[in-house]
Amino acid sequence: MRSLAATALSITLFAGVGPAYAESPFSKVVDRVEKLEHEAGEKAQRLEREGRAEVEQNIHRKESKTADEPKEKAVQDIEKAVK
CB count, 10 Å around CB of 21? Predict the structure, then answer.
């Protein structure tokens, strides 16, 4: 989308209507598109960071659970032996 907006801007400026572009409805659309692209990029980065954090938490939980399983098994074996 950015390339489309940049192309439209360069065509407009090349056509010699630079000052008219600054106040045209077209300029508002281009500005809005650029703003939405920026917001979408920020949101994608935030979601990526949150996704990475969630994956890391899940890995940590899995590692913790795996580390605790032998201990739990040993406790169960001792309890069975005592009974």
Answer: 16
- Total Cβ atoms within 10 A of residue 37: 13
Task: Output the six-digit token pair for 43.
Answer: 């949101």
Q: What is the pTM of this model?
A: 0.43
Residues 6 or more apart in contact with residue 32 via CB below 8 angstroms: none
Domain boundaries in the chain? 2-82
pLDDT digits (tens, 9 = 90+) for 4-42: 666 666 665 555 555 555 567 777 888 899 999 999 999
How many CA atoms are closer than 13 Å to the CA of 33, on its beta-carbon side?
14
Give the Cβ contact number of residue 7 at 10 Å.
10
d(CA 65, CA 51): 21
- Gap between the terminal Cα atoms of the chain: 72
